[in-house]
Amino acid sequence: MEGTVLSVVVPMYNEEAVIPALVERLRPVLDNLGVTYEVVAVDDGSRDRTAHLLFEYGRTWPELRLVKLRRNSGHQAALTAGLQRAKGDWIVSIDADLQDPPETIAEMLRVAREQGLDVVYGVRSDRSTDTVFKRHTAGAYYRLMRRMVGGDVPAQAGDFRLLSRDVVEVLKKLPERAPVYRLLVPSLGFASAEVTYARERRAAGETKYPLRKMVALAWDSTANFSAAPLRIATWLGAFSFVACIALMIFGVVVWANGTVIPGWTSLFLAVLLLSAVQLICLGLLGEYVARIYRTVQDRPTFHIGFDSAAEAQRIEIPQ
Ligand code: UDP
Ligand code: MG
């Protein structure tokens, strides 16, 4: 759709349960904005009826566009696909489960236009609907990230945000293999503002972020923005060296007094401890090498199997 003002990117993984509620709530909000828009629903290789449902709703909602990834490639990869395909002057990314209230989109767009900004973050002022575990792990995550990436990263800002076309074009040119947009966007330094909202309960279905995916996101965030884990090896090495010198002096003093330090237990433990430390450091190094390797391979991180907009175009091309 040429001249699209707003694109709403919604990554979805096995979200069949939530789609009817999403359509019911999102559509009136967008219809009432008074701008041309498209919804880019990215089906992240769902195994349920997500794509089927989206396709069906698309029959009666022409602004709903389905982009289907062939495999489950992860939330951030699905966002990348959506950002790459979105045509709007403004691009909002929002979760499918209605935890981010769609009504806030109107406010984001108004703030960005009135103040001439490129980025508006949705900041969760209230997470009382999340589990205690989620609240604590998220709190620790944002504290660590703010320390690592810098204070520009808004705390409690997930992937509900509005970006201008300029920002999206910059993002598209970045060679990131595992982008973490909530850190990447603030690091670009565009003029931004925050709008706060209370996080709602998931409208239906289960979370698609098991612990495994949370840990993966935290590690991607760390490795993308910091080489500090690599320096752990240096610090541990320095610490072991000092400890070794101290032990040596102690050994000489004991020896001068006519005895020796007894036992092979201490020796054995020291060897075991240092081997463990060495293996951990090697593992960390390997993680970074693997990232370099993946970057050099330059394989796409997702494959688009279907795009309803592209298919429509294809039909229009005269044979
Ligand atoms: N999601 C995705 N691919 C994945 C995991 C999640 O596209 O591999 C989507 C999911 O459908 C939802 C959004 O990412 O729209 C956020 O996921 P969820 O709401 O389950 O995370 P939580 O709110 O529990 O952190
Ligand atoms: Mg959610």
From TrEMBL:
<dbReference type="InterPro" id="IPR001173">
    <property type="entry name" value="Glyco_trans_2-like"/>
</dbReference>
<feature type="domain" description="Glycosyltransferase 2-like">
    <location>
        <begin position="7"/>
        <end position="169"/>
    </location>
</feature>
<dbReference type="InterPro" id="IPR029044">
    <property type="entry name" value="Nucleotide-diphossugar_trans"/>
</dbReference>
<protein>
    <submittedName>
        <fullName>Putative glycosyltransferase</fullName>
    </submittedName>
</protein>
<keyword id="KW-0808">Transferase</keyword>
<dbReference type="GO" id="GO:0005886">
    <property type="term" value="C:plasma membrane"/>
</dbReference>
<comment type="similarity">
    <text>Belongs to the glycosyltransferase 2 family.</text>
</comment>
<feature type="transmembrane region" description="Helical">
    <location>
        <begin position="267"/>
        <end position="290"/>
    </location>
</feature>
<keyword id="KW-0472">Membrane</keyword>
<feature type="transmembrane region" description="Helical">
    <location>
        <begin position="232"/>
        <end position="255"/>
    </location>
</feature>
<dbReference type="InterPro" id="IPR050256">
    <property type="entry name" value="Glycosyltransferase_2"/>
</dbReference>
<dbReference type="Pfam" id="PF00535">
    <property type="entry name" value="Glycos_transf_2"/>
</dbReference>
<keyword id="KW-0328">Glycosyltransferase</keyword>
<keyword id="KW-0812">Transmembrane</keyword>
<keyword id="KW-1133">Transmembrane helix</keyword>
<dbReference type="GO" id="GO:0016757">
    <property type="term" value="F:glycosyltransferase activity"/>
</dbReference>
